[in-house]
What does this fold into?
Amino acid sequence: MRPEIVRALGEMGIERTFAIQELTLPLALAGEDLIGQARTGMGKTFGFGVPLLHRIATAESGTTPLDGTPRALVIVPTRELCLQVTKDLENAGKYLTNHQGPLKVVSIYGGRPYEAQIEALRHGVDVIVGTPGRLLDLANQQHLILGKVGVLVLDEADEMLDLGFLPDIERILGMVPDKRQTMLFSATMPGPIITLARTFLTRPTHIRAEEPHDSAVHDRTAQFVYRAHALDKSELVARVLQAENRGATMIFTRTKRTAQKVADDLAERGFAVGAVHGDLGQIAREKALAKFRKGTIDVLVATDVAARGIDIDDVTHVINYQCPEDEKTYVHRIGRTGRAGRTGVAVTLIDWDELNRWAGIDKALGLGIPEPVETYSRSPHLFSDLGIPEGVTGTIRKPKPERDEDAEVVERPERTPRKRNRRRTRGGKPIDGEATTSTGDAGEQGEAEAGSAPAEGTAGADGERPARRRRRRRKSTGEDGADGATAEANGAAEAKDTAPAGSTAEASTDEASAAEGTDAETGEQPARRRRRRRKPAGESAGDASAADSATPVEANSTAGVSA
It folds into this structure.
């Protein structure tokens, strides 16, 4: 093996090989086709990654020299696994170089814009890790050249079969050269995968690192199966998450909707939780996985498809919130814990309507738990089995911050009252607390104020209309007209009786002029203001009656003066 790869692995803390790596490395480094079967977490990535990097970087291996076109292709089923394999290959080959500089590994997967991936291919690439759909799209568009690929890897082949990628994989295999090395890795080997291997692999060597069902009954993974009620599952899971020595935990569901519901419920209970499922965007899924790997969150809720191939060694607990579809899915789920020689705990919750499905899984794997024990969130055996402290509840209450006695107390400044400068208006004009003089009062003051207060609705000597009363009640047409006429007639008659003859005549003349809409002194018709506003029917009738009532009074006043 090249010393650059050995140096990089040493810096990653990898000093010994696992079973699958020990069996595959000699054959893969020699360029032979092979089928590797081992459960998830047994080191399959470096089992094919190390030989892949060694062969494309070594001229004596028989591969085409690096010139910027892809020399190795790794096909994976999911985006998360694509990013993970890319990162592992970059770390293992960071000291390898090509004709221009460091070895380039590029990930190609859906959910991201085409432009960035096309630009990366134009700048040259040595190893491509991608999902079948996006790889086939770029190959059909002539952006991805597969004519010089010397090493081909199919990782998690059984999962790609379940997702319906088998036709895409067959088309991609038809684009690569016939003279190549092909490695196929999978946790299980169903019939279609065996057929695929016989079609596209050349006399492959089948390597099995363990017994067929050894992964399901691994001694390092303690398995507990409980029959739980659907309405009590969230409370039960919340108590399991408070078990002693619990580290990173993965919770599996069958549907995307259930995954998000469980994540939201646990977040409300105070747990640091994230979700990974198909309804989330690619960026949100990558952020959740990054937080889970960094330890920012310690609970990850995921569906089977989204979590396939996620390689996180620190997972201590796996919870099957819903019963798996079959024994293969069960093997993949609990394979997230007890990885790389570590111990783990797998808890499976079975609802009443899932007992038949679980019975089939138990029989296929020989677990010896055909009838799970009925369990609730407060069952004593749940606390004793999983090491849950007594008295825990389904909610984590964060402690309130303690008050510092030495902290400086800052008094809040007293607020200054706000001053409101609002002015009341009536008829569009400001008023200062005094009510507008009524028409009747204006008639009584006719002697003291010359030409003041003409009939309501008419213009005075200055051409302005009097302000209208806002609290005036609407009256009927006849009643309003009669009141206006009576008030005007009474005012004019009273002025006639109390004033001298000359002044009476003068006042009557001014009053008549005002009623006719002309100026008593100049004879010019003053400008009327706000004539465009429509008046109520009662008010208009009152104005007309008042104007008519002024005519007899004017005649009487003139006759009195002549006499």
Remarks:
- The radius of gyration is 47 Å.
- The longest strand covers residues 221-227.
- Confidence is low (pLDDT under 50) at residues 435-461, 492-522, 544-563.
